[in-house]
């Protein structure tokens, strides 16, 4: 068994967000190093599994990479002694044969960007988004490894490559679902340059609908017109592909990770069978929970866009060289994001100079963020971790029950919405987005309460709050953001929604959750 440090740009949201005792110990160790990552166990894939990961690295059934020629093998053998000892040992211990190890360092078009990154379990992950150097994304190509081959086929001329087009993926008996999900796939690609892709798991209609709402409503201001694109699509360069995979293919090995953002390849991975609507352990099969999970990950894509797109420069000298360093050297630099945090009313401030951590060129999620050490309200995350642990433990009763409501009440004054948010400003901002959306929908519902319910509003809200706490195993509570006026004002300015948009979100996500809570609590 290997142990992996989960570091940005490999953002993962734990949809239940409860950490085992081991995880708490590992976090304490990480915090003591002033580095922002979480330790998780990672079981190795079999040799066959590592090969299979290459057959769905871009899309289901994509071509396998060609075998290395003698020149490429020689390059690998010359490179191996130059790798840092910890990296060469990782490749030796993790990948199951010499062919797999050689592929790990391959650079098909010799542009300085390795084709792949290797996860702690030996899974191959896309790094260079155009391995053959022909100017077309790998995912869009039928032959991603051959720049001399036609890029894709499009029989129905809808501009969606046939190998991705869901119009071809459903039988006539599923025509209704096919038409709905295909229309969303085409709309997102035509208008926002976001392609929905199936890998090792189906892409259910509910996820497509959630993504459509997030792109067109919540993040509408973040998807800006691309002046380099003749079609004038609105795009976010940090989010071009949203893909579905089975949870068994998770890169981090974390048993409760439901979705992740990969900064280097502009993608979001949703592990379908670990989302609430498919998870037997989820309190309810409500799309509200999955809406919150995916919204959290959208914030991480937005955070990368601050430096990758240079759409929102703070200190005026933004360019994309930092993003190229991520693809070439596996190192994240985010000066624009750091400036944003320092100039926002979030409570996070830089406490000292940049961290230096052990780096890996070919391994993920060891992709390390060259980051300052952060304080929240003047105190380091490890001190907050100790405080939260102590406070949580103080609310156990003599008979072993836990008063989680009392725990959350004590955190209300300092507006902490959950332990996950205290890891760093990346996660804090993402968690607060979920709180902002829940509060906004709830505010709309309360203004129009009599149109939907005849129950007492306070009783119904109390039931709903318990549903939310149960759904996140009592480690996330949106209500603690309620009176954090400067922060909520920041979200309203940067992610504005009008009454009609709040109405749509409330009708689609919040009201069904209230109805469920009223019947079951």
Model description:
- The protein is an alpha/beta fold.
- Helices cover about 40% and strands about 10% of the residues.
- It has 16 helices and 15 strands.
- Strands 2-10-11-9-6 form a 5-stranded mixed sheet.
- Helix 8 packs across helix 13 (about 425-445).
- The protein is globular and about 75 Å long.
- The relative contact order is 0.12.
What is the gist of this entry?
The chain is an alpha/beta fold and 521 residues long. It contains 16 helices and 15 strands. The strands form six sheets. Strands 2-10-11-9-6 form a five-stranded mixed sheet. Strands 1-3 form a two-stranded antiparallel ribbon.
Q: Supply Rg.
A: 23 Å
Q: State the low-pLDDT regions, or none.
A: 1-41
What structural class do helix, strand and pairing data support?
alpha/beta
Could you tell me how far the N terminus lies from the C terminus, measured between alpha carbons in angstroms? 41 Å
Q: Tell me the total number of β-strands.
A: 15
Comma- or semicolon-separated keywords:
521 residues, alpha/beta, five-stranded mixed sheet, 40% helix, disordered N terminus
Topology:
Elements: E1 2-6, E2 10-14, H1 21-32, E3 38-42, H2 47-54, H3 70-79, H4 85-94, H5 98-104, E4 116-118, E5 124-126, H6 175-192, E6 195-198, H7 205-218, E7 224-225, E8 234-235, E9 241-245, E10 257-262, E11 267-271, H8 287-308, H9 321-329, E12 331-332, H10 335-342, E13 348-354, E14 368-369, E15 372-376, H11 381-394, H12 404-412, H13 425-447, H14 457-471, H15 485-494, H16 499-520
Parallel strand pairs: 6-9, 9-11, 12-14
Antiparallel strand pairs: 1-3, 2-10, 4-5, 7-8, 10-11, 13-15
